[in-house]
Predict the 3D structure of the following.
Amino acid sequence: MRTTVLAISALLLGSAILNLGGGLLGTLLALRMAVAEFPVLVAGGITSGYYVGYWLGVFFAHRLIEGVGHIRAYAALASIFAATTLILPFFVAPAPWASVRFIHGFCIAGLAVCSESWLNERAANEIRGRIFSIYMIVIYLAQVGGQLLLLVPDSSGFGLFAISAALLSLALVPVAGARVTAPTPRPPSRLGFGELWKISPVGVTGALSSGLILGAFYGLVPYFAEEVGLGTEGISHLMAAAIVGGLLFQWPLGRLSDRIDRRIVLLGVLAVTAAAGTVVAAALLIPALSAHLEIVLLVSAPFLGAAIFTIYPLGAAHTNDLVDPVHLVSASAGLILAYGTGAIIGPAAAAGIMLAMGPSGLFVFFALSGLVVGAFTLWRIGRRAPTPVDDREPFHVIARAAPPTTGVGALALAAEAGAEIIAPDKPEDEAGVATDAPTD
């Protein structure tokens, strides 16, 4: 284990620096859109554009990797990410910002494929889950640090963009200086999206709802906080508190789902999402609470983060319990497609509700998402018994493609697009499989 961690230390350091700079940038952009008085629908559209770039980038970035190799591709994408970041403070307008964010999404997709294929190649089967968990913890901690960088004084309006660009550039240094062998090519299996839905409607719906909620969370919570007068320091603390909540509760909730029906745990986090959204929305409408809005937000944020950051990994773990082992890569690809579709729709949909209801509409959107998907999950629980504990895959911490997380799973989607960068053989690929997989 120690030897493997040392072997991927350059990648871990590069990912940490990348997410430190990208974490700062994502929140900074949402904040500056509010300060520049971009209409909320425009802010939501720019955020959706990032996810469109990511969605397309996962399909096409592998061609760059195949042409020049992992390290050169990583360096090129990180450089493009950094250089385009410096454009943003010079052209504060919706069209250039939407274009740049689209490019950022594409770059992050390619960086995700590079990182995950490297990890898969280096990690042996018996420790792969722990290696990816370490990778995700590094990313979460870097994102928290990125939120706190908002507190750096920036009277010019350019300094924070420069810090972000510098960090994104520095991220390629440890990776460019490392030695890595390209992963072993392996043709993926095929599992259609319709088939995946029949096998695990709860897993697919959970991935979709995770995209809806997290897309809106990253793109619009800083915008919301600026609108309600929270200030830069308050926004920094709010975002950091939510991400820390997500980090701290990932493992305990995952372990709980290894012992009881995962759908019940998923139902619980959806209920917490609905409750936290309702509390914050009510606080904006009730004078006694709105007078202490910052306290309400900071108290609610860790619970909201604990819930919304665990929806996807719980849904993915439930799906993996049901899918034939030879189709795990295809299943992962399908879940990423569902997540990406939700992340494209979510910011625009939440912005529409905010336009109609004011800032509270964002948390109304969170509450409605939790209620609707929770109701569907409850209905599905009544339709089928849980998967036996002995038949379940172990839970793994997974961060989805939130700015700027690379997120476990982009490699699988690239594989479905035809990339020759699939992970090495896994023991479960050799196992016997049932022809009629159960549905949840």
Summary: The chain has one domain: 2-419. The chain is about 75% helix and 0% strand. The mean pLDDT is 82.
